[in-house]
Amino acid sequence: QNNLAQISLLLGADTARAQILARELVTKDPHNPVFLSTYAFALFSKGDNNNALLTMEKLTDEQRRVPEAAGYYGVILAETGDRIRAAEFLDLAQSGANLLPEEKALFDRARRSIAQR
Predict the structure, then answer these.
(1) Which helix (H) or strand (E) holds 17?
(2) CA distances from 45 to 41, 42, 50, 51, 62 (A)
(3) pLDDT tens per residue across span 58-78
């Protein structure tokens, strides 16, 4: 279910269902870092950047630094204006994660946005 939600959000396909799935997963297991990062991305995808950031900050620093979560945290940080930390987390994701092409594109857009500010 998490993979389905994440891919749907990345592709912009059936995002309403993906957001529901992400919320259900976090409700079932509120301490799972993978579920939390997917839920944060679901919030971000619908423009709720503040709650997306708050959700990512429920993770420990170590969990946020796991490459698979770091990129999403970097995207959210970039959007909320924390350029320095955004770059750090985007670097972590790109150096350590097996990224889907859609994730790579998302992270690259975030990197370009912080370079322009």
Answers:
(1) helix 15-28
(2) 6, 5, 12, 11, 24
(3) 999 999 998 889 999 999 999
